[in-house]
UniProtKB/TrEMBL annotation:
Residue ranges constituting the Nudix hydrolase domain according to the UniProt record: 43-175
Entries under PROSITE patterns matching the protein: NUDIX
Species for this entry: Gordonia phosphorivorans
Keyword vocabulary terms for this entry: Hydrolase
Gene3D superfamilies the record matches: Nucleoside Triphosphate Pyrophosphohydrolase
Protein name: NUDIX domain-containing protein
Family matches, as InterPro entries: NUDIX_hydrolase-like_dom_sf, NUDIX_hydrolase_dom
Keyword Flavoprotein: no
PANTHER family hit by this protein: ADP-RIBOSE PYROPHOSPHATASE, UDP/ADP-SUGAR PYROPHOSPHATASE
Source organism superkingdom: Bacteria
Keyword Oxidoreductase: no
Length: 207
């Protein structure tokens, strides 16, 4: 066993035990500092979320039903990177903003990157800041999205909703708090095509 922080974690064997439409489950045998251990890994598409801010300082939120927790959540417009291996995160964000909120944006920047549950899942989300908004046709909506409601909140009210527990979606909480800090500090944001080291590719590649 070497010094802490020096071990090379290698995968000796990997078996996919389930593969569905939006996720796969595999069992990895990983070489640990003290021997081998099995790790269950959920593999998914990457995701994008969009904090769309208008000239009045309001942000677009959607309220939609989430079946795993069986209630509606207040969230940023968001969706999976499931448009194929050639679809960029920005392309996906533009598509999702139009489909869920009926909006397009003239200005795009990377707001924050998230790894949601690194203990068992490779899911990662890029949150964009979109400004210079205009209305577009959202097209037909299906399944849960047919019940989707678009709401506008001031950024200040969205921060309060996150801190009070009204907003609990992880990418929404992170995006709202990050946007508030950007406005407070004036920190320069990354370009919309900035490198994204943790973007998941294994699940898309298996199809």
């Amino acid at each position: 066993m070497g010094a802490p922080g020096s071990h090379e974690f290698t995968v000796r064997d990997s078996t996919t035990v389930y593969s569905g439409a939006i996720l796969a489950l595999r069992l990895d045998q990983v070489v640990m500092p003290s021997g081998e251990a099995q790790r269950e890994v959920v593999s998914k598409h990457g995701a994008v979320a969009i904090l769309a801010r208008d000239e009045q300082g309001r942000i677009a939120l959607v309220r939609q039903y989430r079946h795993p927790i069986q209630r509606r959540l207040l969230e940023l417009p968001a969706g999976l990177l499931d448009g194929g291996p050639e679809e960029s995160p920005l392309d996906a964000a533009q598509r999702e903003l139009a489909e869920e909120a009926g909006l397009a944006a003239g200005s795009w920047r990377t707001l924050v990157d998230l790894v949601s549950s690194a203990g068992f899942c490779d899911e990662a989300t890029r949150v964009f800041l979109a400004e210079d908004l205009r209305a577009v046709d959202s097209g037909p909506r299906h399944h849960e999205e047919a019940d989707l409601e678009v709401l506008w909140l001031s950024l200040e009210d969205a921060v309060a909703a996150a801190l009070s527990g009204e907003i609990v979606n992880a990418s929404t909480v992170a995006g709202v708090l990050a946007a508030a800090e950007v406005l407070r500090s004036g920190v320069e944001l990354r370009a919309p095509d900035a490198p994204w080291i943790d973007r998941p590719r294994r699940f898309t590649g298996r199809q």
